[in-house]
Amino acid sequence: MELKQPHSLNGILLYVISTVFVTYLAFHGDIPITAWNSVFWIILMFGSMNAASRVLYQEPYSRHAFYYQLLNPTHLILSRLLYNGLLIGILSLLTFGGFSLLCGNPVKHTSYFIFELLIGGIGLSSVLTVVAAIASRAGQSFSLMAILSFPLVLPMMLVLINLGEQAITADQITNGLRGGIVLFLLALLPALIGVILFPHLWRD
Amino acid sequence: MKQNWWRWLGGLLILKSIIIGLLIPVPQLPVIHESIRNLFYHVPMWFAMMTMFLCGVINSLRYLKNFDIRYDRLAVESVNTGILFAFLGLFTGMIWARFTWGDFWVNDPQLNGAGITILMYLAYLVLRHGIEEEQKRARISAVYNIFAFVLMIVFIGILPRLSEGSIHPGKDGNPALGVKGPDATMRLVFYPAIVGWVIIALTIRKIRLTHVYLNEKLLDKE
Fold it and tell me: Which domain holds residue A184?
């Protein structure tokens, strides 16, 4: 469905590329490691917020009515979760690529970092998808989406930034598996609650 | 008056904890010293807050089951009261931190968790303001309330344990009950203080609810 509107996808891509470029210019291409990590995650957070909100809130009311007659709400939210997970996963890889191209790549444990990136992407997308659903039912404004999702995304961002810092600076990954499992659970949980609660949101 | 005896009991318990909390001898711990007495004033606030938020989420669940607008009112007023206590807890904590750590706010997982919680519930109120239609507002905000509450519990439970090096007292195990240091006499004051503040929180919620209903009646008459 979304693929029919390539301009919105391109918009997200352009957003990521231009923010990466702005960061590169702002730091004159020479970024300290902690700043690299935090700026990277902040860009990713806003990028995924854009991506997730686009899916739901650019939807006109008539289309909502159309889906409403056609689809099972559980299927709809599941498909949206999958779609957003994929989208944000790709987005995060692209951001990583662009960032290391322009600003250098200080990451020592690349595979661990990418693993974290993907799971973090799933987590972000599951929180943001549910919040976008809530915001879109509440009268479609991006500011509402931002207000609702910030406090919910923040703790996950803290975990991600901590793990990311470890992947960048540490010589040896300690508790890598444990961090990954925790992150994975954090990613699954919001999706699960979202799937349970979405039918309630759906009724009109 | 008679059926409200337990509300008065709550007031008495708090009064007791305030007065006795200042009088009894306390164990001297490094760094904290006499300020350990803040246990009687600061920690019960969080207990009251958590109780209120729990009430809020239970009522949201009940609303989604029965679609009775009364449960929605209960949920909102629970959250309102909870936010009040969150701010009280924050302020008592900040005053304490000013004297113990030398600053009103330090970068600590415990404090950040509290900040995030407050933001979350303020967002809940903002969300409610954004929706006109009553039933719709109730339903959507109930969904958000449940979602936020579960995530909050998980984050508060997991985050502080992931990041080592919190300087908040009682970091090992449960942040509130596991504080090492309070001896038997302190516990005698501490637990009644918790009960007292929870009762006061319930009372405040009751008063707010009555206020809401009375307002509605007035509007109906006009």
Answer: 2-202
